Amino acid sequence: MKILNFGSCNVDYVYSLDHIAVTGETEATQGLSILPGGKGLNQSIAITRAGNSVYHAGCIGDGGEFLLELLKANGVDVSFVDYVNTKNGHAVIQVSKAGDNAIFLYSGSNHMISTEQADRVLSAFSKDDILLLQNEINNLDYIVKKAYQAGMKIILNPSPFNDKIRQIDLNMVSYLILNEIEAKGITKCENVQKALAYFREKFPDLKVMLTLGNKGCIYQDKKEQRYCPVFKVDAIDTTGAGDTFTGYFVGGIANENKIENILEIASCASAISVTREGAAPSIPYMDEVMEQINCLKTNGADMKAEILRIKIEQYFDENLMDASLNGLADFLGYSPIYTSAMVKKITNETYKKYLQKKRLEVSATLLLQTELSIDEIVKKAGYENASFFRKIFKEKYGMTPLNYRKRKAK
To answer: pLDDT at residue 232 above 90?
Structure first.
């Protein structure tokens, strides 16, 4: 099984700031570093540092020659990288004292990939080989279709998210690796579990790897859902964290490791990366990850609470119409008394109040986004009668349901 990463190679101009500049603000920098970057390059290096071989395909332009040398130095096969006579793609990155970042991109050479190049590259790979893609190159939908026709296993990281992603048929994708912002962009769901439910319903064969920043990550396929907590570290620069995670995840998939082991190793590698500056330079090697994995402890109490919160949300999303405390208790595998205490501890509300809150939220969404009648909404949300629904809705939102719906027309 071969791994092909068809992706970007960028020059990163990293500016150190007190805080991320906002609209209309001029912020003095404390320093400038010129570093290798691009999600494609970062993820190829992460794959090799995780102990796997990878072929990188893409385009290098003027000023990007050192990127090709860096890939070679890290053991990446660059025989499918073409040189084009244009400015190399680059990124301008703001990094705050708190370790947060803001990035804007100039595509340059990364958007010079032709269909002829795509055909030539993909012809060297076959069924069940892995194709890794991000959203920093052009002709992405064409590459996906051709790889799917060849029977390749496609792993898509739809970052940065934009409308190009909507052109891709996710039924052709094997794995989707994304964060909360990208999940919301694709599904239009604010809630993590609703986004995961959307993928389960629309793309049942799609395996979803959802990263949640400092809240950990969730993996989902048609059989299971697994949560992995974050490793506790002092972050300096989060720029390469997602790419590090993706590279290690892809390496684990290629090695056919157990998903729980893949999540733990990828999460640890990502945690190590945020303790260092830069993107590609911050990516750790596998031996370092394995050495640190038992030292960088996760918070077991936080993990248990997060798993329970996710399961509680899932229960209400799937059973709102006939939700009950006994039903939730059976779903969680606890007694009703213990379940009631857990709901209060995790949500800061009693079971009854939290259920009412969820039903009101769903009702408000249905009023604004559908043409369902009040009686239909009452039934979907699980209310006993329309009169009670109108009463508590007005208490919550200060207006009748019909007046609330009129907001859509304004």
So the answer is: no
